[in-house]
């Protein structure tokens, strides 16, 4: 009989993130969620972005770019590419219907690298007007 893989506890997720990104900031909220804040440059020549991730146990992490506000766009774009919420700058890092992420996966080795990847492709999109990061965007 196959053994069910257990969800990674909230505090283990937070500790793994803090170990991987020691200069970041994590605050817990009532023991069932945490907020992670960090400054990210997606490449040596990239800009610096402040990001915030809200993780509620049992739900997908929500990732926001909190600075700069608003994010730049190519001249012909009227909204950000691959965002759930253009105004709040909530990033679309994976397609939930395809089970690309679940709570048995470490955020430090999945979601956070995907933030760097999103920002890298975002900077290319701003410069070229073409999203090269792949993904599904309904």
Please tag this protein with its features.
138 residues, alpha+beta, 2 helices, 23% strand, globular
Question: Could you characterize the architecture of this molecule?
Answer:
With 138 residues, the protein is α+β, with helices and mostly antiparallel strands. Helices cover 21% and strands 23% of the residues. The protein is built from two helices and six strands. The chain has a four-stranded antiparallel sheet with strand order 1-2-3-4. Strands 5-6 form a two-stranded antiparallel sheet. It starts with 9 loop residues before the first helix and ends in a 10-residue tail after the last helix. The model has no long low-confidence stretch (mean pLDDT 91).
């Amino acid at each position: 009989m196959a053994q069910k893989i257990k969800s990674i506890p909230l505090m283990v997720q937070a500790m793994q993130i803090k170990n991987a990104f020691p200069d970041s900031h994590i605050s817990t909220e009532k023991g069932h969620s945490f907020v992670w804040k960090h400054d990210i440059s997606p490449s040596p020549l990239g800009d610096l972005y402040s990001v915030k991730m809200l993780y509620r146990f049992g739900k997908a992490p929500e990732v926001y770019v909190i600075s700069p506000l608003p994010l730049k766009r190519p001249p012909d774009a009227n909204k950000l590419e691959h965002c759930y919420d253009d105004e709040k700058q909530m990033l679309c890092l994976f397609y939930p219907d395809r089970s690309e992420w679940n709570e048995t996966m470490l955020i430090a080795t999945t979601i956070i690298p995907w933030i760097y990847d999103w920002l890298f492709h975002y900077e290319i999109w701003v410069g070229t007007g073409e999203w090269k990061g792949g993904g599904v965007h309904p």
